[in-house]
Design goal:
heterodimer, A: three-stranded mixed β-sheet, B: mainly alpha, DUF5130 domain-containing protein (chain A), DUF5130 (chain A)
Chain lengths: 135, 103
């Protein structure tokens, strides 16, 4: 099921298309998320939007909203504040140590600095998932 | 065989001018057709106005019940502002790790 199909039923323009990504980028992010989830057994999630100060605490609160925070990884990107937060749950942290999260963050930030939000998110997901390995 | 003045002008001015017009027109049409998306593009350092989005491979992974209203397999679209306000009130969890960076 694609993003476009989901909205076709509602008749309203999809909220997600008001977001920062084109349909093609949305599909690529969806695919990257699905592969990351299937490959690792962890739950990956990407938030793109404004974060309140303190940014880290806000990202952790979003992470807690997920159904299974311990096994979840949240990538929170705030383009206007130019901030990136990667939050790993207690269990996920054992699979993805903070040093590797930092490495993924570095490569994502490199893409973001060039204006490529979707590319950074996809490559970051790929790095995190490949380091987490099979669950 | 000599070219007349009219022929010379036609070949050396008319054809290049036509080519310039065609290519310029195509480029202009392409940039206009893409204008909506191009205007929305993120450029570092410039204010960027968009609806916040939260992606999950499976929306049922969001603890909030409203997230499950979406069809399975779809992306969770932007959270409602109500949910984001709720997120702002909850106490932060301990024991999480990860990384922070800025660009």
């Amino acid at each position: 099921m694609t993003v476009g199909e989901v909205q076709a039923g509602t008749g309203n323009p999809p909220e997600v298309l008001d977001g920062p990504f084109s349909t093609r980028q949305l599909l690529r992010i969806d695919e990257a998320l699905r592969l990351a989830d299937q490959g690792t057994g962890l739950v990956f999630s990407v938030f793109v939007g404004g974060l309140d100060e303190p940014v880290r605490e806000h990202a952790e609160r979003l992470h807690r909203q997920l159904a299974d925070p311990d096994r979840s990884v949240l990538i929170a990107v705030s383009p206007n504040q130019r901030r990136l937060e990667i939050v790993t749950g207690r269990h996920a942290r054992k699979r993805i140590p903070d040093t590797y999260a930092k490495l993924a963050a570095l490569s994502m930030v490199a893409s973001f600095g060039g204006g490529d939000l979707a590319g950074g998110i996809i490559s970051g997901l790929d790095q995190l998932a490949s380091h987490a390995g099979r669950g | 065989m000599g070219l007349s003045v009219t022929d010379t002008l036609l070949v050396y001015v008319g054809i290049p001018a036509a080519a310039v017009l065609v290519i310029g027109g195509l480029a202009y049409a392409a940039s206009r057709g893409n204008g909506g998306r191009g205007a929305k593009r993120y450029r570092p350092g410039r204010p960027f106005d968009f609806t916040p989005v939260w992606f999950l491979a499976r929306p049922e992974h969001l603890a909030d019940s409203a997230g499950t209203a979406l069809a399975a397999g779809a992306q969770a679209p932007a959270l409602t502002s109500r949910k984001q306000e709720q997120a702002g009130r909850e106490a932060p969890a301990g024991g999480t790790g990860g990384a922070s960076d800025r660009w």
